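EI: anyone free to look at a 393-residue chain?
SC: sure, send it
EI:
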Amino acid sequence: MSSVTIRETISFEEAFEQAKRGEVSVDAARVLIRPADRVQTERLLGLAAETRDRLKGKIISYSKKVFIPLTNLCRDYCGYCTFRKDPGERGAATMSPDEVLAVANAGKELGCKEALFSLGDRPEAIFPEMRETLQSLGHRTTLSYLLSICELVLNETGLLPHVNPGLMARADIEAFRRLSPSMGLMLENVSDRFASPGMAHDNAPDKIPSLRLRTIEEAGRQKVPFTTGILIGIGETLDERIDALEAIRFLHKTYGHIQEVIVQNFRAKTEIPMRNHPEPSLLDHARTIAVARLMMPDVNIQAPPNLSDENYPLLIHAGINDWGGISPLTRDFINPEKPWPHIEDLGAKTADKGYELKERLSVYPEYLGRGEYIDASLIETIRAMADDRGYAA
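SC: here you go
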């Protein structure tokens, strides 16, 4: 990534004028994200919302999907995670093909069009139990098993797979691209500081920022519509948030493949090591969303509604244009204590703010119209699921 020279001082007015011109530098972003007085905060959020309206219109999208936790065994021990398990631990599970199909078919009956797969990173690397499970299923690696499951779900149900399998090499992305038209990997942060003892990633070898950036970059080389994002409130500085957004912006400018940036807020849970860690405030979250919008005005910016409880409609004012995946069937397995809002309620509250809730596919409309971003074997299937604007038909 190119180096950036940071000025020692820049005023809010200078930073704001840059943002109005659509030329937000890193030093301007660092000023805009910092706590400001009420008037400055309102101006920041207002500009982000105006930018969203100008480029994205008055639509807030979502994807109606099923969430499928293929395996929650994982070799990483992140301080904020309740999803991952060790073999033998209560709730540890790897789904069979029949179990996956049962969920996918139930989701199809409810009108879902996407199957989002969540799974731990390379559990077979440290758990012999996972190696035995994979061998019984006819596979050596978790990624190989996931690939076969994507093919099964696509062929048997027509749901579009979206994979979040952690780190992937070039060959992995090439293979998944033929079955999963979109993919994702949360960058979270770019500071190596998080691997230090007591920090969120101190025992998480797959969270090394350079490795995650390499996967995101390889997806760009292969023109995969890609979802990434940052996780705020896990001990990062405001400057480190900007560094992560800048890394994403750089990759998008280089390859043009970042279809969605998630600005996700940390929520404390009683059973995690970070149970006593303070959560970011709603205003802190909104300000970060606004800066992400101004740094990447053409990218779809998402925040999960369930992680802001009843306050989620306020995030529209910060510049989001997508609520992410909402399921009428399955819970949020990463944040199981936070239920999804009902789609009807989501639509009503979105309309109250003056916007139309619109269902999309796993591939956003602007990428659906660019054939080079979708494998030739999938393009007709996906276009048949879309309306004339590229949203879900």
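EI: Residues 1-7 have pLDDT under 50 and may be disordered.
SC: 👍
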